[in-house]
Amino acid sequence: MKYKDYYAILGVERSASADEVKKAYRKLAQKYHPDVTQDPAGEEKFKEVTEAYQTLKDPEKRAAYDQLGSGYRPGEDFRPPPDWEKQFRERYAGEGPFGARGGAFSFEDADLSDLFEAFSRARGGGRGGAGASFPGEDYEVTVHLSLEDAARGTQVELDLGMPEADERGRVRHVPKKIKARIPKGATDGQRLRLRGQGGKGVNGGRDGDLYLNIVLHPHPLFRPDGHDLYLDLPLAPWEAALGATIEVPTLAGAVNLKVPAGTAAGRRLRLARKGLPKPGGGEGDLYAIVQIVNPTVLGERERELFRELGTVSRFNPRGHFTGESHG
Amino acid sequence: MAEPEEGAWLHAAAQVTIVELARSSGMPEELLRELVGYGALEPADPGAAEWCFSAACVARVRRAARLRGDLELDTPALALVLSFLDRIERLEAELRHLHAQLAAPHR
């Protein structure tokens, strides 16, 4: 069994009061809670902190932990005192890895957290008292999809590590593959629930659910906003000025878009129902946002024509600086 | 391998009953009712015999429930967390909307 220094994890002295332990936990939990932290290592740290607190907040567990002494380094292999093992067997005989019914048992293949988990189980409080039923755990996983897959609907195969209790009641992570169908119409940040695909319930408790959190990969052309899509539509100055019919890509293939004469940069041209399908039926829209782009390299003739245009045109794009209206 | 599992979208067009919301968040119905009293949760039809909620709130309520358990939050703090999470979701949606309109730098 590997030694963990629960006091060091919480950053408190071994002599800390229950109140100090609680305060230290709260501070760290707020910092590293996976629902709050931006720290990628936060989840691991949070688990560590919670494990330490679960043991130290309970006077009985803390007394048992203190019996281990402080002569170990974190991660060091250690063997609990022999009378400890005996005490555990006698006091917590019953279900679980430390029970008399658990068959052959050795502290060596247990984890320190299993040990203290066994305390709560053996006391019969809450989960897993003999015969009590409790629901399986819910799982949340993030699934990355391309925009095309989100629009069409797709199937994903998920590799999940799910804790399952073995015949000795010890919890181990077991790999589990789940094929899930993602119906069409996913949007960024949306959640899909698969009922009963989470952890197994115990003693007749219901199975947990699996929640998929959909994240869309950035697309080289389209930017999603809910079920609407946005596309930049670069136009040459003469296309914008004279109007043109432009071939525009959509998720369902190219379509022709009529750009009216005198189209300004930034104007949104709507292609109705060319966005993402909505789950209740119908589709979002596709918006093409006009950009007016100049050639970066001009040929001699092009330069001549622009010069001529500049001489002929009475257009003043900055009329509003001096109160004139656009010409 | 078995047939793929079919999922259900938790979006604003779908609803969950208060019983379902309690089940999926692990919070008692009574507490959910209290949160409605705080204005932190809004039933689709407050006059209905059995309250239903937009399925879009399931993830938020689950998240708040985790924070409640792990940070030992009392009910007023939980209500505050829920309203902040709601606000974050709205702001993130707004941000997505603005990002979508923002032209990519021209290549």
What can you tell me about this protein's structure?
- The complex is a heterodimer of chains A (327) and B (107).
- Chain A has 327 residues and is an alpha+beta fold.
- Chain A has three domains: 6-122, Helix Hairpins, CATH 1.10.287.110; 139-216, Urease metallochaperone UreE, N-terminal domain (HSP40/DNAj peptide-binding domain), CATH 2.60.260; 222-322, Urease metallochaperone UreE, N-terminal domain (HSP40/DNAj peptide-binding domain, Sandwich), CATH 2.60.260.
- Chain A has nine helices and eleven strands.
- In chain A, the strands form four sheets. Chain A has a four-stranded mixed β-sheet with strand order 6-7-11-10.
- In chain A, a hairpin with a 2-residue loop joins strand 6 (222-225) and strand 7 (228-235).
- In chain A, helix 2 runs antiparallel to helix 3.
- The longest helix of chain A has 15 residues, at 18-32.
- The radius of gyration of chain A is 32 Å and the shape is elongated.
- Residues 95-105 and 125-129 of chain A have low confidence and may be disordered.
- Chain B has helices spanning 18-25, 29-37, 58-71, 75-101; strands at residues 5-6, 8-9, 15-17, 52-54.
- The longest helix of chain B is centred in the C-terminal third of the chain and has 27 residues, at 75-101.
- Chain B is mainly alpha-helical and 107 residues long.
- Chain B is built from four helices and four strands.
- Chain B has a two-stranded antiparallel sheet with strand order 3-4.
- Chain B has one domain (15-101): Multidrug-efflux Transporter Regulator, Chain: A, Domain 2 (Orthogonal Bundle).
- Chain B is 54% helix and 9% strand.
- Strand 4 of chain A pairs antiparallel with strand 2 (8-9) of chain B.
